[in-house]
Amino acid sequence: MIQRLQSVFLFLVAVAMGLTLGLDLWTQVVADSGExxxxxxxxxxxxxxxxxxxxxxxxxxxxxLAAFVGLMAIISIFQYRNHGRQMMIxxxxxLFMVGLVAIVFLxxxxxxxxxxxxxxxxxxxxxxxxxxxxVCNMLANRFIRKDVALLxxxxxxx
Length: 158
Known about the structure:
alpha+beta
């Protein structure tokens, strides 16, 4: 049923992906020049020390992947009658979230190498929301497996 605990965790996955879409993922301030680099789900923005945008490049694939993961979590909520399909959707969703983390990490490392920064910058709430979504997805799968075990034990009693 929809009011099960795994549905709450899957809803939290969708909320976390919404946070990923809406908030910054990474920020880097270059100490020498005062430039600021920001990565959000849609753009990589370079701004000068005065605050004006110098360069902006599109990262639509991060936003598309985050939106897809959120949509799959919502779809998975309504697959409560078919536990196998629900677990399969969640496992595929986990793979996409790992890919999302890898893409963000590789993008930020590429920028750091390009600008020759001494530190790695700071990951913002949008990035950490992806990791929270991964944990919530794992917990949802755990509770789905508990439901399957409960159903099997009830069938044995009959």
